UniProtKB/TrEMBL annotation:
A Pfam family this chain is assigned to: TAP42
Gene Ontology CC annotation, any one: cytosol
Family (UniProt): Belongs to the IGBP1/TAP42 family.
Listed GO MF terms: protein phosphatase 2A binding
Name of the molecule in the record: PP2A regulatory subunit TAP46
GO biological process terms, semicolon-separated: regulation of dephosphorylation; regulation of signal transduction; TOR signaling
Length: 402
């Protein structure tokens, strides 16, 4: 049933489905069934392209329509998916993938899409020096980054145009400049596909070099195994290692139920001491910050057993005073001081708002009367004294005529 559906699908639908699978596999990885399905779809695309005769050897990129440009990527996508197939004969997979990459590069070369420096490097082959290969890789990396940036810019431009078209359609129902928008979309789509092909060419050259190296390495290993007859022995060693690893993981999982995780190290100084071998993790509760010791590495790294070694390690000391406590200890001390200050303030506010401070003492009626009489007598005596001593009577010697 699935094969019948694939047979009935159009070329564009096949390509879009295969492109989605390729994107999923390259970005996040997928199972082998999805990879095989993508390879089948791309192979079907190749058959349909050859039957329809979409491309000709005497054409260039300008002669290909915008709708058919994307089908140039079919061999590249097929090469990348084929490389991800997991089979015992890895060398055969590498050869098939390399053949598809070479087919893609040669076709792009015929369409005048491959940069001139890549063509010159491929003609020279292994005669390139290390500096030339490095310069070529740097130039290829820059082209790849530029293509990725351009694709991002085109995508953002499309999203902005889509939002503006929706807003204009909601605000004004009049259709103005619709043909211009369609033309802009066609030019933009062509630019996007050409940029995607340029990016694929960069990736194809890198992948081709990597696959060649992998094939050479696997071929050398296979020849060595065939010569020495150690194929079965190597497989036995691998099986033994696998069994040991599985047993270790089983024992670790069994022990994890009865073991407690170690407490994290919060003091940076103690962590540095543990790394450099001056302390153990089990001494975390006994650790106290000690000033850093400067001196010969042979004495600092080891344990200072005698006073002579300690004095020798303290020869090169800094001119400034070293800290006497760690940042964690200083923070804890500040927290303690703040708690004490808050407790003292709370106690002062409580005393200020207490009843005995606010309420005045209540006096009896007899005491009030006595106070009033004493105040009146004092006021009368003061009035009499002011009558006997008028203002300025004692300052006659200070006057000019006195």
């Amino acid at each position: 049933m699935g094969e019948r559906k694939v047979e009935d699908m159009s070329l564009s639908a096949l390509f879009e489905q295969a492109r989605k699978i390729h994107l999923t596999v390259t970005e996040s990885g997928a199972d082998q069934d999805l990879v095989k399905k993508g390879c089948e779809l791309l192979e079907k695309c190749e058959d349909m392209i050859s039957k329809l005769g979409l491309f000709s050897s005497n054409e260039t990129k300008d002669d290909i329509s915008t709708n058919n440009l994307k089908y140039l990527l079919v061999p590249f996508y097929l090469a990348e998916l084929t490389e991800k197939l997991a089979q015992e004969e890895r060398i055969q997979i590498l050869k098939i993938s390399q053949a598809k990459l070479k087919e893609f590069i040669s076709f792009c070369e015929a369409m005048e899409l491959v940069p001139q420096e890549e063509l010159e490097a491929s003609v020279q082959g292994a005669s390139n020096s290390f500096a030339d290969r490095r310069a070529l890789k740097i130039a290829r990396f820059r082209r790849q980054r530029a293509a990725e940036a351009k694709l991002t810019e085109i995508k953002e431009r499309k999203e902005r145009r889509g939002r503006s078209i929706k807003a204009a359609a909601l605000s004004t129902p009049v259709e103005v400049g619709e043909d211009d928008l369609l033309d802009d979309d066609g030019e933009e789509e062509r630019e996007a596909w050409l940029t995607t092909i340029s990016l694929a060419i960069c990736k194809a050259f890198d992948l081709l070099e990597m696959l060649k190296k992998e094939e050479e390495m696997l071929s050398a290993i296979k020849e060595k195994q065939l010569k020495e007859g150690e194929k079965e022995f190597s497989q036995a060693i691998l099986d033994d290692r696998t069994k040991k690893a599985e047993a270790w993981h089983r024992d670790a999982a069994a022990r994890a139920r009865y073991t407690q995780p170690a407490a994290p190290i919060t003091c940076a100084t103690f962590a540095q001491d543990v790394i450099e071998g001056r302390a153990n993790v089990s001494q975390a509760h006994e650790h106290k910050h000690q000033p850093m010791i400067f001196g010969p590495q042979s004495l600092i790294g080891g344990s200072l057993t005698s006073e002579r070694e300690r004095m020798a390690a303290q020869v090169f000391q800094p001119a400034y005073r070293m800290p006497t406590m760690s940042i964690e200890e200083a923070g804890l001390r500040e927290m303690e001081m703040m708690n004490k200050w808050q407790e003292r303030n709370a106690k002062m506010f409580e005393e200020a708002n207490s009843a005995w401070y606010k309420d005045k003492p209540k006096m009896g009626p007899s005491e009030d009367d006595e106070d009033d009489d004493a105040a009146q007598e004092k006021a009368r005596a003061w009035d009499d004294w002011k009558d006997d001593n008028p203002r300025g009577a004692g300052n006659k010697k200070l006057t000019p005529c006195g």
